[in-house]
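User: Predict the structure for this protein chain, please.
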Amino acid sequence: MYIPELLNSYGLFQRTSNLNREAGFSDDYALLLNRATSAVVSIRRMEFLQKQCFLELDLFDDQIDDLDDRIVFYSESSVEIQNQISPLLSTLRIMQDQLNQILRRKYPHVNLPRSINQTIERINRYNLPTEIKDLLKTYWGSSGSRIRDLRILDQHYSSIVDKVLLQSSPDRRILILFPDNPKEQSKARWTYNQEIDGISELRIGFDELHQLIEDICEYWEYPSRQVTDSVNLYQLGDLRPFRKRTISLWFYKRLIENGDNKTLDLSGLRIGQLEDGRLEFRKLALTANKLNELRKQMGLD
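Assistant: Here is the predicted structure, written as structure tokens:
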């Protein structure tokens, strides 16, 4: 599932959201946004973990006065950053092919292959609009092809997250160096002369893929609109015999900022079934008793 509030907070997929209104596209759209949500969560998690690494380093800054610009640093936080790389690479590859699937559905007469790599390799054979071809070729030449190569390398040959350094100067960051030549399958022949920051490369890779998808939707003249919830209850199966009951609960957590004041808004949405089979929807807010319980659990009282 995807999180509309998260995607909207970054202004993501505002034109793409129109696909949810087109017949036959809802499943492809939901899968694309599902993976996009996963990518954003992973990117945000790495940003948080990088800050944690430097908080951990700074606990000992009064005892270390000869810190090199780059050091080998080990902690649970740094290991978790490394473990975000492979899933994020896979997510970006799935998003690439999901875009290709959307193009297949939009232009059924063209008979595109299932892989975006094969589509772009033979792009001039297909009767796609010139604008779409140009967008695909530009993206693939910029970052798309390299993302694919890195994922193949990482999944089928060897880990690409072996070179991990904490950099304190000229800027603070965790560096995971990616190989310059990901088409080279032998790890012994990988080079790192360009010192490519893998975390930044994946972030840029997501941004450029998102921009490609939005540019294609702009070509289709889709207006910009926010991503909305998509409630799928099919996993419950046959809801007969009908009876009054709760069949789904959605929980929302939203941080409201008003100047220096921040308020955490917790709410819910109950989806129920009535005796005649109709669905009913009811917004939920925390009661005073539950709020007091929560404050005690969090040690605020």
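The mean pLDDT is 94.
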